[in-house]
Amino acid sequence: MALTIPESIPSKSSEGEKALFNVLKTKLSEDFTVWYEPRLQGNLYPDFTILSPTFGLLIIEVKGWFAGNVIEAGEQFFRVKGRQGIESHQSPLRQAHGYFCTAAERFKGYPILRNPDGNYEGKLVFPVGTAAVMSNITEPQAHEEHIYNFLQQPQVAYRDELLEWENYSPEMLVQRLRDMFKVYFDFPTLTADQVNTIKGCLHPETVIKTKPAGPQSVPSGVALPEGSTAVVPLDLDQERLARNMKDGHRLISGVAGSGKTLILLARAKVLANRLLDQRILILCFNITLAAHLRSLLHGDTMNPQYQDCIEVMHFHDWAKSILGRLPRFNNQDNYDEILGQHVLAALQQLPPEQRWDSILVDEAHTFTREWFECCVAGLKDPENGDLVVVSDGNQSLYKRAKFTWKSVGIKAQGRTMKLAQNYRNTREILEAAWTVVKKTDQDLTDDATFPTVEPEAALRQGPRPTLYQAGTRAKAVDVAVEQVQRLVMLGYSPSEIAILYRKNQDKALFNAMLKRLQALGLPVYWVTESQETKVNYSARKPGVRVITTLSALGLEFKAVLLLWVEQFEDCFAEDLDMRSLARRQLYVAMTRAQDELHLVAGGNAAVVNALEKSEALDSKTNHSIEPQARQSKLSMQSK
């Protein structure tokens, strides 16, 4: 059975589209992906796009015209009688070819999709076909009405043939679809990177990032052009979720690394692409996360509409934009709650045209109940407007009063989904992090509003996390610098490495660490140096990231060094709330790492002793830490 996006065809689809969808879904094998009405660019929505690593790419346009309604047929245009009178339509084959031309322009930007040399140098390495299905016209009718000359088989299938396809074997259907190509040729099976790059070109709103291509990106024996890149898109389930999400209030809870933020971004892009003049707002608590998301969306030069209609703000910035300035209150303990009340009152006075069509909330577990009331009030249609709330109870880092979704006006019943699969971390990192949070007292984590979701096993494997017991804070800095050097020597870019810290406990020592890294020729990006650096964080700026554990919420890095882990001593505080929050903060810090995680302790503490006893981490004491500094420095200088 083919993989289809969406999983089932919408009820609004025509009978011909439904018939073709069912045939493709049931007859094709699982290495085929079939999209119904995907967006290529602007308002271009081909009816069906079919892709397989052994088949190639086929774009099909479906027309439900009846023979008696076709007034005039031609190579370029058809005149068809419709409800509004005689309408002019592009020929379905010409329309499908236009979709191909749009996609081909994008394919050109990726050398792994083109022949590097030979007689076909620069040509695509896979065949692309365009076809049409006339779901309400039979072949005899096409001849009788003088349509067939402009829509000939085998590039076109008529109603009588479409009905026969239901009785075809899978092999017969694949061969018939191959016959629809004007030019078809044998080709090496496409690699996963090639398939993903094709998907990203066809559906840019699903793109997560681009990455350097490697030998595995092209078939064996094929030369890899220098500087080649490949696309990393959403996976099938994530793409289905982003595309199939219905309008209205939606709640998504998921573990760290489950792709919650990626789905939220994809949903925002879908909304921006689907409707013109949309006003879309992405909200979060974390200043740095807001800046990160803004840089990803507004830095997309291929899709300027994202900057035009998607705003990204942290809540306090949104409050300031509505109130004119952030007010001061005598009661600082409940500042966020009182601020929410003031924002709510102001929003209720806003005329509908100044509100938002869609509001999407990331890391919602950091919000207060009053803030969610503001989100509902900020919608042009509070009852049925598009509101997506994404959260993870395991990452609740701040003490918030409990509430129900109903109490804040969010219609949650029957509109919730959970994501348990971890895509970010290796199994080893996830296991180590989960041992920290799963010991949190059950009465503190059992929250109906922000439920904890136990993560399923991660998809990748890697080195076990390591705990370094350096003995002093100064020696912990030595270890951190040495590990950064080692990671760079292994091929990590400095911007893929992050040094996380809970607080700047020793400013002189901390600044000395930054200077040492820079002296070694390693650029440093101190993200949380000031309010200004947090607000202006950019994912594209080079340098080893240096950032607090709280500001790292929502971010991810290839390798993470958690400096002065003894600062999490309150993981064993007597106060249950304090203990729970500290363990969640440590869990969040550890799950920022995709490939490598190193925890560096500069002193003794109960949390260090507990981590040492964990079977999920390797532990090195001061005397067992190899002195790599001089050797690493010489290696760096020689590069």
Question: Can you describe this structure?
Answer:
Strands 20-21-19-22-23-18-24 form a seven-stranded parallel sheet, sandwiched between helices. It is of the alpha/beta class. Helix content is 34%, strand content 19%. Mean pLDDT is 89; it is low at 440-445 and 628-639. The chain is globular. It is built from 21 helices and 24 strands.
Instruction: Let me know the largest β-sheet.
Output: 7 strands, parallel
What distance separates the N and C termini? 51 Å
Name the structural class. alpha/beta
Tell me the strand percentage band. 15-25%
- Helix percent band: 25-40%
What ranges have pLDDT less than 50 throughout 5 or more consecutive residues? 440-445, 628-639
State Rg.
28 Å
* Spatial strand order of the main sheet: 20-21-19-22-23-18-24
Brief synopsis:
With 639 residues, the chain is α/β, with parallel strands linked by helices. The chain contains 21 helices and 24 strands.
Give the secondary structure arrangement, pairings included.
Blueprint: E1 3-5, H1 15-27, E2 33-36, E3 48-52, E4 56-63, E5 70-72, E6 77-82, E7 85-90, H2 92-107, E8 128-134, H3 139-144, E9 156-158, H4 159-165, H5 170-179, H6 192-202, E10 207-212, E11 229-233, H7 236-244, E12 249-254, H8 260-274, E13 280-284, H9 287-298, H10 305-309, E14 310-314, H11 315-323, H12 335-347, E15 358-361, H13 369-377, E16 386-391, E17 416-419, H14 427-437, H15 442-445, E18 466-469, H16 473-489, E19 497-501, H17 507-519, E20 524-526, H18 531-535, E21 544-548, E22 557-563, H19 576-590, E23 593-601, H20 606-613, E24 618-621, H21 629-638
